[in-house]
Amino acid sequence: MYEPYHAFEADIPPAALAPVTARLAALGAEFAETTGGRHSWLVSGVLPARHVQEFQGLLPGLTHGEGVWTSAPSGDRPVRGNAAPRQGGPR
């Protein structure tokens, strides 16, 4: 089974790097690049589309309103972990 993914970029303050990347990882993000330094960090990668809206809602709290998020569809990838629906319905 496959599911849609979005490519993302998040421009965040340095103090938010750990909480933002931890939350993205928990949602199944695959990181491509993290660059930055003293004033801001740019985190990029892909995230399952089913988690994009959830993360967008979390970003203001994780960055104290200073984060900027952009994403766009980037194709489908195999479903990982327990995200695959079960065959045959409930028993």
From TrEMBL:
Residues 2-84 form the Elongation factor EFG domain. InterPro entries: EFG_III/V (IPR035647), EFG_V-like (IPR000640). Residues 63-91 are annotated as: Disordered. Signal peptide: none annotated. It holds the Pfam family EFG_C. It comes from the Bacteria. This is Elongation factor EFG domain-containing protein. It comes from Streptomyces platensis. The lineage of its organism: Bacteria, Bacillati, Actinomycetota, Actinomycetes, Kitasatosporales.
